[in-house]
Amino acid sequence: MISRVLVPMDDSEMSERALKYALEAHPDAEITVLTVVGEPSTMWGEAAAIALADDVERTAKKFAREILDRAEEIASENDAEITTDVRVGNPARSILDRAEEFDTVVVGSHGGTMAERLLVGNVAQKVVRRSPVPVTVVR
């Protein structure tokens, strides 16, 4: 029985579909939505703001707030409760670091902008290949 589900979420439609699927397929499970904000670097917009912030964790949560608000809205529409988490770093690595704490991962088939996909690679693909637990990819 699946009792703990990790749903990585960005601002894409696919990640919203993944959350909706997880809520429907695992109605009795504890669902955690994970949002990963870019690795601190002075070369990238959002990440640069995080890297230069006095409180990195608080700034990362600020950038993730819109995504997490949408996740909570989706959960509310499905009469469900979720837990949320924000990490700073590489999305695939951050997801994989948390995956072993769960019974399964439900991930959108793709997300982010085209430029991010070209630079970072397909996060879902990396998670599927390396996850220590089963992964469901939602399209």
TrEMBL record:
Q: What positions does the domain UspA occupy? A: 1-139
The record's section on Pfam families has:
Usp (PF00582)
Please, which domain of life does this record's source organism belong to? Answer: Archaea
In terms of InterPro entries, this protein maps to: Rossmann-like_a/b/a_fold, Universal_stress_UspA, UspA
Which organism does this record belong to?
A: Halopelagius inordinatus
- Family as reported in the entry's similarity comment: Belongs to the universal stress protein A family.
Q: Which segments of the protein form a coiled coil according to its record?
A: none
Q: Where is the signal peptide?
A: none
Question: What is the name of this protein?
Answer: Nucleotide-binding universal stress protein, UspA family
